């Protein structure tokens, strides 16, 4: 089983357990909103464009709200669990599901887990952590472009990747999964440490990071 499929299964199980009204780290969204978001991404390519392009965000929201209100929560979770349709690009292009959905599902899985009381980071397979590190390394400049200060991400083994190049800069250290959540704007819920000028640290901890 790929990591994308494993994350999908665990994510769907958690949606089932918590029901439609549980909080998430996505501001203003419940678990039902997050489930509808995944369904839009995977089953409504006409509307998914608004996830990345703000001029289309209103249309995407209207489709997402219609799905949430027009289907039962059980149906939404079943759609998430089943994944993209067989004849979608995810089903037709080998490896695309793993490439695109591994991190998407991981982040949103954590958006639910870490919005609940008493959470702790999961112990992830070493190859998944390494995959996440590679994605963080390749995407750091894009994800951290809005930081008001420079950022360097540091793996616990000492490897580093530059995010935004500027001074003063902050060194952020953590496991790859924690760095990913930090870089995607979940700073308050990422188990990382900071080194640098305290004013710069405060700025990066409250910056709007991510894609």
Short description:
Residues 5-48 form the Mycothiol-dependent maleylpyruvate isomerase metal-binding domain. The chain contains 10 helices and 4 strands; from the N terminus they run H-H-H-H-H-H-H-H-E-E-E-H-E-H. It has 211 residues and is of the alpha+beta class.
Number of domains: 2
Overall pLDDT metric: 91
Strand content: 5-15%
Q: Taking strands numbered 1, 2, ... along the chain, how are they ordered across the largest sheet?
A: 2-1-3-4
Low-confidence stretches: none
Category from helices, strands and their pairing: alpha+beta
- Tally of individual helices: 10
Structure description:
- With 211 residues, the chain is of the alpha+beta class.
- The protein has a four-stranded mixed beta sheet with strand order 2-1-3-4.
- 56% of the residues lie in helices and 8% in strands.
- It is globular.
- The mean pLDDT is 91.
- The chain has helices at 3-18, 31-43, 45-52, 57-70, 73-82, 89-92, 96-113, 126-143, 176-183, 198-206; strands at residues 150-154, 160-162, 169-173, 193-195.
């Amino acid at each position: 089983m790929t990591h994308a499929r494993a994350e999908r299964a665990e994510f769907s199980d958690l949606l089932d357990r918590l029901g439609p009204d549980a909080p998430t780290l996505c501001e203003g969204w419940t678990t039902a909103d997050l489930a509808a978001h995944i369904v839009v991404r995977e089953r409504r390519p006409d509307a998914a464009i608004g996830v990345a392009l703000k001029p289309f965000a209103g249309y995407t929201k209207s489709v997402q709200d219609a799905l949430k209100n027009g289907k039962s929560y059980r149906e939404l979770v079943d759609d998430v669990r089943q994944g993209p349709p067989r004849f979608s690009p995810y089903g037709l292009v080998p490896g695309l599901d793993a490439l695109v959905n591994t991190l998407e599902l991981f982040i949103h899985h954590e958006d639910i887990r870490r919005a609940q009381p008493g959470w702790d980071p999961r112990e992830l397979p070493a190859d998944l952590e390494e995959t996440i590190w590679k994605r963080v390394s390749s995407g750091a400049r894009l994800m951290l472009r809005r930081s008001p200060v420079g950022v360097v991400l540091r793996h616990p083994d000492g490897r580093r990747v530059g995010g935004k190049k500027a001074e003063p800069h902050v060194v952020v250290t953590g496991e790859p999964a924690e760095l990913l959540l930090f870089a995607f704007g979940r700073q308050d819920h990422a188990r990382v440490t900071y080194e640098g000028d305290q004013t710069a640290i405060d700025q990066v901890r409250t910056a709007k990071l991510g894609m």
